[in-house]
Structure formats: structure tokens, C-alpha cells
Specification:
About 60% of the residues lie in helices and about 0% in strands. It is mainly α.
């Protein structure tokens, strides 16, 4: 299989985990992960990083991992859980940094808003697989463009409150 295509398939659990939380915002357990705590006078993560999103996204990554394994791809289902959690951890880490530099939830921080989930999932993936630097650069470019399109669609349809 082409390495670029395999990169895009391998990280599908991370993409799904990153996109799922807004679709489930009406479910219970929407409690902020940071419990409303502040650091240096700023919210730690903010009210948009919830236990519900972490659980739904991580489980969604696991389901995608199971589907990839079921399709006969060289993928183990629990990698989906790991990559899904890593994606959401990356998003939360980016939110922590944004809050500490005074960027409000929904405020733009390009390109990190588009790639935060993939950066951490990619770093964690070193436990499982290595991709060439050229493939990684091309894939990050493709994911950046795709994420921008998804954010525009999410804002236009009202799935996401913030618009790009």
C-alpha cells in the first residue's frame, strides 16, 4: 500500500475522535475536564473540553480501529483507542496553551487549531509505526486543508459554534 495512503488510513481514529465531540454535545457528562480551575488567572482548558467529549472521542477512535481491523488492514483495534485519546489530549494541550496566552475558546490559532490532534497522535504513533518525513509533511498538509474544510462546514451547519 502507498505510504501516504496508509498514513491517512492509520490516523483515521484520530480524525474521528477529534470530530466526534461536537455531535454529542447534548449528551450528559458535559462537565469540564478542568473542573473550572484556573492557572495564572486563565481557565486551565476551558468549558469546551469535557469528559463527555473525551469519552465519546476515545471510544469513537476505538470503534474506527475495530472497523479497520475488521476490514483486514494491518491494524489492531486498541490502537484506535490510543490514537483517539492522543488526539484529544493534543487538542486539550493546545487549549491549555491558548488559554495561557489569552486566546479565548473559539479564538483562532492557525495552524495548531487544525493540527493539534494529529501532532500528538503522530508522536504517539512512534510506538507502532514510522513514516518517512516526506509522507508526514504531505499528509500534514492534506490534513490541514481537510480540517479547514471540515471547520468551515461545521460552522456553516451549526455543528460547531465557532466559524473559521
Amino acid at each position: 500500500m502507498n505510504e501516504l495512503l496508509w498514513f491517512l488510513i492509520f490516523f483515521t481514529p484520530a480524525y474521528v475522535a477529534n470530530m466526534l465531540p461536537p455531535f454529542f454535545r447534548k449528551l450528559p457528562f458535559g462537565y469540564p475536564i478542568d473542573g473550572g480551575r484556573k492557572w495564572n488567572g486563565y481557565p486551565l482548558l476551558g468549558k469546551n473540553k469535557t469528559w463527555r467529549g473525551l469519552i465519546v472521542g476515545t471510544l469513537g477512535g476505538g470503534v474506527v480501529g475495530w472497523l479497520l481491523q475488521s476490514l483486514g488492514l494491518p491494524f489492531i483495534w486498541w490502537w484506535g483507542l490510543v490514537l483517539g485519546f492522543a488526539a484529544l489530549f493534543g487538542d486539550a494541550a493546545k487549549s491549555l496553551i491558548k488559554r495561557q496566552v489569552g486566546i479565548k475558546p473559539g479564538g483562532r490559532w492557525v495552524p495548531f487549531d487544525q493540527l493539534d490532534f494529529l501532532i500528538v497522535a503522530w508522536l504517539v504513533s512512534f510506538l507502532f509505526v514510522r513514516f518517512s518525513w516526506l509522507t508526514t509533511l504531505l499528509a500534514f498538509t492534506i490534513v490541514f486543508a481537510g480540517t479547514v474544510l471540515v471547520q468551515i462546514a461545521g460552522g456553516a451547519t451549526g455543528v460547531k459554534a465557532d466559524k473559521l
